[in-house]
Amino acid sequence: MAKEKTLEDLFYDTLKDIYFAERQILRALPKMARAAQSSELKAGFEKHREQTEGHVERLQQVFDKIGKRAQGKTCEAIQGIIAEGEEIIDEFKGTQALDAGLISAAQAVEHYEIARYGTLKTWAATLGLKDVVGLLDQTLQEEAATDKILSQLATTAANQKAKAA
Questions:
Q1: Percentage of residues in the chain with pLDDT exceeding 90?
Q2: What is the rounded distance in angstroms from the CA atom of residue 83 to the CA atom of residue 45?
Q3: Which of 28, 84, 91, 103 is deepest in the core (most CB within 10 A)?
Q4: What local confidence, expressed as pLDDT, does residue 165 receive?
Q5: In sequence order, which ranges of the chain are alpha helices (DSSP H)?
Q6: Measuring CA to CA, which residue among 36, 40, 35 is closest to residue 152?
Q7: CB crowding 11-41: b at 16 or more within 10 Å, else e
Q8: Long-range CB contacts (within 8 A, 24+) of 49-56
Q9: What is d(CA 14, CA 12) in angstroms, rounded to the nearest whole number?
Q10: Phi/psi at 2 (nearest 5 deg)?
């Protein structure tokens, strides 16, 4: 008879998922920065890459705190979201709409991460992993702040530039 799966199993599985996702995002951000037309957006992607390195380090700390090896599990969702971003780069390269498209792709990534970190934080609290909750919350707050910055860039410049073209 198969062992009953627990919330701890689900937490660990989801942790591996977001660890894989963050490492894929690290690879995608330089491509997005190179493609960005606006210097503000380019700088934003570069800054977020540095933050993402911190997210990976925090996740490694979480793995350590739960006594598990830091390892990723293929996340098809993030692969799909990143592939959509690459399509936008290919299809809108050289157009006034490119930055608006890059922002939309980046926000899809952020929303995925916000969902994952919010869930992990809640599960960590339920499991009594108090020292893990703070690590996950710190990343969750950074992801939410990045999403807000992306929204500001979209509404103050990129969307209007794309519309005017």
A1: 97
A2: 17
A3: 103
A4: 73
A5: 7-35, 39-65, 76-92, 98-126, 130-153, 159-164
A6: 40
A7: bbebbbbbbbbbbbbeebbeebbebbebeeb
A8: 51/142, 51/146, 52/22, 52/25, 52/26, 53/26, 54/139, 54/142, 55/22, 55/139, 55/142, 56/19, 56/22, 56/23, 56/26
A9: 5
A10: -70, 145
Rounded CA separation 150/165 (Å): 21
Q: How confident is the model at residue 3 (pLDDT cuts 50, 70, 90)?
A: confident
Residue pair 157/100 in contact (Cβ under 8 Å)? The answer is: no
* Residue 71 tokens, joined: 């390892």
Task: Report yes or no: 139 and 117 within 8 Å, Cβ to Cβ.
Answer: yes
Distance CA 81, CA 22 (A): 12
- 1: tokens are 């008879």
| Sign of the torsion angle spanned by Cα atoms 13, 15, 16, 18 | positive
* Alpha carbon distance, N-terminus to C-terminus of the chain: 63
The pLDDT of residue 95 = 95
Tokens representing residue 60 in the block = 């490694």
Token representation of residue 85: 């971003």
